[in-house]
Automatic annotation (TrEMBL):
Keyword presence, Signal: yes
Protein name in UniProt: Hemoglobin linker chain
Organism from which the protein derives: Macrochaeta sp. FB-2019
Keywords assigned: Disulfide bond, Signal
Cited Pfam families: Eryth_link_C, Ldl_recept_a
Domain (Annelid erythrocruorin linker subunit C-terminal) ranges: 124-238
Signal peptide (residue range): 1-25
InterPro entries membership: Eryth_link_C, Eryth_link_C_sf, LDL_receptor-like_sf, LDLR_class-A_CS, LDrepeatLR_classA_rpt
Length: 239
């Protein structure tokens, strides 16, 4: 956890140092340009949010302050990329190779090392499992936090579209202090290790959550509006 935090803190520090240097170099006129630094202030806020999300995530998944080095490595990979394009799976190992997400878990090895038909095919979302999460709203007419619970009622694998597992879920979410329960559907994509839950509720908000491939009892993602805009950051953990 603290590697991610340190990176965020360093970014904050660099932003602050940059602003101070800018103001020094340009004198009073320099302050005018600080107004255009609003984006940096936003960045600081996001960095703070990130830290809080990490803390909550660790609490939810019961790992305390100790996070495995594999999870740290996965987080660094997410920051730096894994060498593959969007919608591609990194086979990993000694000879990195990218294959399409659609080729993952289709019963045909595409990676030279077979990684696309290996552990990645274990679905973290199992029938009957229950997931709790905290959403940090920053948009879609909401700010602040809310609680979300997702219960997996049924999981099924389509034979003709094997790169995904479909699921029927019950979503319980907090709305104006009240809990609202709704049934909807979703899927898990093996290659991206991503869960997507179809939009529910009057506001039509969907959930997208990514697993790091190491700790499969927790995912991080966002709540999205119909137009695909991010409404909230969310972290979920298996109960
Ligand atoms: C949602 O699905 C569950 C499990 O299939 C079912 O027991 C429940 O009655 C459903 N609720 C609603 C509101 O449809």
């Amino acid at each position: 956890m603290w590697l991610g935090d340190t990176i965020d803190q360093m970014r904050c520090l660099l932003v602050i140092l940059g602003l101070v240097a800018l103001a020094r170099a340009q004198g009073p006129a320099g302050w005018a340009s600080l107004i255009s630094a609003r984006a940096d202030a936003n960045e600081l806020r996001l960095a703070g949010l990130r830290t809080r999300i990490d803390a909550i995530a660790d609490k939810l998944s019961g790992v305390g302050s100790g996070v495995s080095t594999d999870s740290l490595a996965a987080r660094v990979r997410r920051l730096t990329g894994n060498g593959c394009r969007d919608k591609e799976f990194q086979c990993g190992g000694d000879a990195p190779q990218c294959v399409s997400n659609l080729a993952v878990c289709d019963n045909t090895p595409d990676c030279r090392n077979g990684a696309d038909e290996g552990a990645v095919c274990n679905v973290p979302i199992t029938q009957g499992s229950s997931w709790v999460g905290v959403a940090y709203w920053s948009s879609c007419n909401s700010v602040g936090t809310s609680n979300v619970r997702v219960i997996i009622n049924r999981v099924s694998r389509s034979s003709f579209f094997s790169a995904f597992t479909q699921m029927d879920v019950t979503v319980i979410h907090e709305q104006n202090g009240q809990y609202v329960m709704e049934n909807t559907t979703g899927w898990y994509g093996y290659g991206a290790r991503r869960v997507f839950v179809q939009p529910t509720g009057g506001r039509h908000i969907g959930l997208s959550c990514d697993f790091d491939g190491v700790n499969m009892r927790r995912c991080e993602g966002r709540l999205v509006s119909d137009s695909g805009a991010t409404c909230a950051d969310i972290v979920m953990a298996r109960r």
